[in-house]
């Protein structure tokens, strides 16, 4: 028989255990429900910068003020396991919107649109202006005004920003004056760089006369880094809307009222197998004076690849590898720490369409069970939407932004077909951009382009503007499952 003293001791012990459990639950809930103080934050690695946002007709835009406090956002689910989303996406409340565009930055003379093809039309010539107009229209029609525009790179064809002296005029001509609609003029642009921002395949160094051969490996690496710095240090006169914090950084947008948030993980994937470090570091179009024929199959050690200087080529290639390795390392770390409702990777390249199998596996190892629901990239100048059931991850190629002539959408390479399947591809006849609208349990992905009421002319000022056509709409569930067409 148990004594009264023993019974009393047991009761006290049980109550103490229950109290401890309740305390743990309360602490856990409080930690996961803390929210950001602003609707736009940019963090790089472990250093966090909270960008104070001011409201406007187009949503929040950054003022450039940075604090040392790291933000936390609400989350509606964990990063692993199926959540079995059963709610109706058509009746969901979408409170956070972002636009996305790739390969949009035409040359000043607009020759980047059409020099690679013998056939083109007025739509091709004025594509960037047309897409910018469609974007401005869609901004007022979205469920919520866009809080940012995700840019996948190739911001300035053909060779990026070549000098500090020419930078501001170039930004003014092919960025500020293009995206100047009242609904988007003050919306933050969240950027990564593409191969053409790093020089494309032309000379990376420059002198007083323009692009020039590099004289040494150290000069080449310095010039390559400067390509990035010249864009990163630009200050937009429109609420400082140009954002490029580092080769890897996280940008967060959220709606505080609903608690819905999106973490955008911006990566530098310059070590891609297709038109990545190899082509950029060879600089063949510089050495071959722009000859496509001479630059086919040029490789390390060839006279038309870094002038045959393998030390120069290797130093450049190693720098791209360093940046990409760091992006993968930080992506793994920051995704694991993220408490955002939605997690999106922004890249210039696809992890499988633009990489060989070995490179693909490096990215897929990080993405497996990561909780990332969407990867968005450009590079291929088309539009398509793929899905991986093993990764529970949607992939979007979004490169028909208007900076260069459109082309067919990317396919899924043979080595990736066991992991990735195609869901949709555009017809290849137009230009456009993507939007994502987020609710607590659903992400609405859409592709927008000009509708049939547009009448294109040789000059954009003579073009008769029409409306917006949405040619792809897909509901992505919070658990990263396949989802369904709208």
From TrEMBL:
Bias (Low complexity): 32-46, 54-65, 74-87
Keywords associated with the record: Hydrolase, Signal
InterPro entries: Calcineurin-like_PHP (IPR004843), Metallo-depent_PP-like (IPR029052), Metallophosphoesterase_PAP (IPR051558)
Keyword Nuclease on entry: no
Residue ranges occupied by any Calcineurin-like phosphoesterase domain in the UniProt entry: 144-382
Region (Disordered): 32-87
Matching Pfam families: Metallophos
Origin: domain of life: Eukaryota
GO molecular function: hydrolase activity
Protein name: Calcineurin-like phosphoesterase domain-containing protein
Organism: Peronospora matthiolae
Phylogenetic classification of the source organism: Eukaryota, Sar, Stramenopiles, Oomycota, Peronosporomycetes
């Amino acid at each position: 028989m148990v004594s009264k003293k023993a019974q009393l001791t047991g009761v006290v012990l049980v109550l103490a255990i229950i109290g401890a459990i309740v305390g743990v639950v309360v602490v856990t809930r409080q930690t996961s429900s803390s929210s950001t103080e602003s609707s736009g934050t940019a963090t790089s690695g472990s250093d966090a910068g909270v960008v104070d946002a001011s409201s406007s007709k187009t949503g929040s835009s950054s003022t450039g003020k940075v604090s040392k406090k790291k933000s936390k956002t609400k989350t509606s689910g964990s990063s692993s396991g199926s959540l079995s989303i059963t709610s109706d996406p058509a009746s969901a409340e979408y409170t956070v919107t972002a636009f996305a565009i790739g390969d949009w930055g035409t040359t000043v003379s607009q020759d980047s649109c059409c020099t690679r093809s013998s056939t083109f039309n007025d739509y091709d010539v004025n594509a960037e202006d047309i897409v910018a107009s469609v974007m401005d229209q869609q901004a007022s029609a979205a469920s919520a005004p866009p809080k940012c525009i995700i840019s996948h790179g190739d911001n300035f064809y053909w060779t990026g920003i070549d000098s500090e002296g020419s930078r501001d005029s170039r930004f003014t001509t092919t960025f500020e004056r293009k995206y100047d609609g009242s609904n988007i003029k003050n919306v933050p642009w969240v950027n990564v760089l593409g191969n053409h921002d790093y020089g494309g395949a032309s000379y990376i160094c420059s002198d007083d006369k323009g692009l020039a051969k590099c004289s040494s490996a150290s000069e080449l690496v310095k010039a390559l880094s400067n390509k990035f710095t010249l864009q990163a240090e630009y200050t937009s006169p429109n609420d400082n809307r140009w954002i490029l914090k580092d080769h890897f950084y996280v940008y967060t947008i959220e709606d505080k009222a609903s608690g819905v948030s999106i973490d955008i993980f911006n990566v530098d994937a310059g070590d891609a197998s297709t038109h990545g470090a190899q082509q950029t570091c060879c600089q063949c179009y510089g050495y071959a004076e722009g000859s496509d024929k001479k630059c086919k199959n040029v490789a390390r050690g060839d006279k038309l690849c870094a002038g045959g200087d393998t030390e120069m080529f290797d130093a450049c290639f190693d720098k791209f590898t360093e940046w990409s390795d760091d992006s993968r390392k930080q992506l793994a770390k920051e995704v694991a720490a993220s408490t955002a409702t939605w997690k999106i990777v922004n890249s210039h390249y696809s992890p499988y369409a633009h990489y060989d199998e070995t490179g693909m596996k490096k990215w897929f190892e990080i993405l497996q069970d990561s909780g990332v629901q969407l990867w968005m990239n450009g590079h291929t100048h088309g539009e398509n939407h793929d899905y991986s059931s093993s990764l529970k991850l949607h992939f979007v190629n979004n490169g028909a932004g208007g900076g260069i002539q459109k082309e067919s959408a990317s396919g899924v390479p043979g080595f990736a077909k066991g992991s990735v399947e195609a869901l949709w591809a555009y017809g290849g006849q137009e230009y456009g951009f993507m939007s994502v609208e987020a609710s607590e349990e659903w992400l609405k992905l859409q592709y927008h382009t000009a509708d049939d009421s547009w009448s294109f002319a040789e000059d954009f000022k003579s073009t008769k503007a029409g409306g917006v056509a949405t040619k792809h709409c897909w509901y992505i569930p919070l658990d990263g499952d396949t989802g369904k067409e709208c």
